[in-house]
Give the backbone structure.
Amino acid sequence: MSVNNSHTDAGTAEEPDYDAVIIGAGFSGLYQLHRLRDELGLSVRILEKADDVGGTWYWNRYPGARCDSESHIYCYSFNDDLLEEWEWSERYPEQPEVLEYLRFAADRLDLRRDIEFGTEVTAAAFDEDAGRWEIDTDDGSRVSSQFLVTAVGCLSEPYVPDFEGIDSFEGESYHTGRWPHEPVSFEGKRVAVIGTGATGIQIIPEIVETDVEGLTVFQRTPNYAVPARNRPLGDEDWTEIQANYDEILAEAHDSGFGFPFRVRRETAADLSMEEVEEYLEPRWKEGGFRFLVAFEDLTVNPDTNEKVSQFLRGKIREAIDDPEVAEKPVPTDHYYATKRPPLHTDYYDTYNKDHVSLVDVTETPVERITPEGIRTTDASHDFDTIVYATGFDAMTGTLLQIDIQGTDGLTLEEKWADGPQTYLGLSAHGFPNMFTITGPQSPSVLSNMPVSIEHHVKWVSDAIEYLVDNDIRLIEPTKEAEVAWTAHNREVAGGTLYTTVDSWYMNENIPGKPTVFTPYPGGVDAYHDIILEVAEKDYEGFELTESLGDLGRTGTRPNLSVMESD
């Protein structure tokens, strides 16, 4: 089928260049290209600013960068050949292996011929007369398409705080999200790492192992980190995985977080602390996100969470020899998992080394970056290298870097000035024929990402197929449906512990961004049921336009009952 050959409207004889343009060639963009091109027969083009596939795994190549979902479920599940031909080497693969996997998938599915590398999308505007998107790139070229799919990732736009004097530093400085392709040497150098989130927790132990002269960690907010317990995967592991792969993947796709891990207990509220410790200890030794699903009510019940948090605080204190130092990385201001819950390998043991120091910037804030290093309120620190592990402008940052303009001249930045407004996290009123893969107000970062990506890509592909088969030109969510979904997202979030703390989930790491919980916290399984029901009801909550000259809309009112929280 081809959309290009299906419609000819008066005054718009010129056809779009493509049926669909996809922005980004990571996990979501590659799969979306495969579905639209190879299964629907559409003309499709990916525009990718990097010079290779990989998305976040192309850019995040800092030492220690590693997946924290287990490898056998951090992969595509839609193709048996990919599952059978690729074997992961470790329980948690490092960045080079994940990148190589995506290269393998792109080659195996012959996707590169429809990807334009080294091409950054700078703007996209919906042409209301022609009913198509006009997409501008950094080389001054323009392409058009009927459908626009953003596959830009949730953690793609690096953020560095606006430290005074940041450009004056005379040494080397790096952000973990834009790490150089060539090796970076720390040997014999005085190194600072700013940030102790998931990225900082991965890179800090790696730097310590490079014969660095000294490492100083600047911590704003301590975090709860559970050991990953990484290990190589052998032939026996793969034999067992392959024998049970269908069941493993089915369970992952029908779970709350996109993992095939079953919650063993509903609550800890009825347990003593001694019983909680006895229950959690085997899960601590097992490591990974299996610990996250120990109790079903972890993110909604303060009593349960406080007991789990208390267990973790004890583990942190046990790992660090100096009692005074041990208190610094112990979180006391938030519940476990209400900030992004990292995994670690020997992170806390780092602080037992004589050449490592930890600066709490809540006690002695950073005043400025100097030519020699970093000045806090009580000392000046000299460094050869500064590493900014300061995270990302998450969820909406990359989308809003693109000048996206919908109907009536409305830009996405203007529309989201007070926080994201979407329908299902997949689309926005005023932006016809535009889909956002793992967009704001979808489970995305609260899940094993490939699972959520596959749910979205399949839904978008099925929607486009429905439009083509039914000779429908445009799809756009109603304002009513968008308002209802945004309200539902906030209502569900308000019933959790996520909103009790400042975090990048809440946009609190970016000055000036509105404080609002951005992902959808209702669970991958519940969310998937909702979007499937919308599709089964002929895309309930969307306006469908059969032709550009047809002002009549055929959409139906959204069924708000499917959005009610328990």
About this structure: Residues 2-13, 549-562 have pLDDT under 50 and may be disordered. The first helix runs from residue 27 to 39.
